[in-house]
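TL;DR need structure tokens for one chain.
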Amino acid sequence: MPPVAILAGGLATRLYPVTQSIPKSLVQVAGKPFIEHQLNLLRAKGVARVVLCAGHLGDQIKFAIGDGKRFGISVDYSFDGEMSLGTGGAVKKALPMLGDLFFVMYGDSYLDIDFSSVHGYFMAGDRNGVMTVFRNRDRWGKSNVVFEEGVVSCYDKTAGTSGLEYIDYGLSLLRGSCFESFKDGTCFDLGDVYRRLILCRQMSGIEVMERFYEIGSVSGLEETGKYLRRKLS
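>> reply
TL;DR here they are.
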């Protein structure tokens, strides 16, 4: 199973004042820091190694999680440094740890799906990226993807495209070569990488049927807490 890059470098302003002193990954959810729920889930899905792309207050995550051994998973760290690198720049910096093929997910997402199926789908194809998509119809966040016949043909987070039914589920599998055209140490968004892949028809898609959970907002935090308490009871 490829390693997983977890993007955990944001400021999490929507959760202020809690995240003024701790990173979002350490916010308590269902009795433990959220990152612990993520690591336990990834281990259960067969993932052996994680690279945490950290920024704001990232040293606190490293102090709390360490090398990941107590969770049964190997954890390495890649830090933005003095300047925020954005989601794309953070992955670019972590490439030496990630290798040629890796998953990318966000530090505020809980995605209880079959990672091995996504990997198998990617390996059976011939494109450089695969995005998981969910037929959201604006129910849990604004839909931002056009998905047709196994291909992602549009990715629009500005809501400038009408009639969108799918949303980026929050898990992608990418080749390291997808980042070659971006300069080291520059700030750019992961969406910029996706749009270049789409333009070249190199982004396939796989539809998932289970909804996602997230802690990026107060309402999302409450809903995810309820879900995890039910799941762990």
